[in-house]
Amino acid sequence: MNKSNEPKPLVPRSAAFFAELHDDCLPRIDSATVSIIGIQDDEIRHDRTGVLYEIADQRFILTAAHDVRGIVSHNIPLYVSVNVPDVLPLPLADARFHST
User: Fold this and answer.
1) Domain limits of the chain?
2) Each residue of 48-74: pLDDT tens digit?
3) DSSP of 2-31
């Protein structure tokens, strides 16, 4: 019996599942999601994530809308990280925000 706080070793089937998830799924997830960050009190703060999608020639970021209106109304600058090393986050200053 494992009485310590150490995690139990994965059974081979679970290990294979997580290896496949890491190798096959995570790269696709990473290419379709972005981090949305804000700058507040001179600190960079991770705010939320969003999913990229495109309809016709319009591109969108879909994210949970809670608190976004408050963030925008308080003029907290938001940026999108494109998950690429050495690429600065893109400002959302000219973005349009829609919520339901």
Assistant:
1) 35-94
2) 889 988 999 988 989 887 778 788 788
3) --SSSPPPPPHHHHHHHHHIIIIIHHHHHH
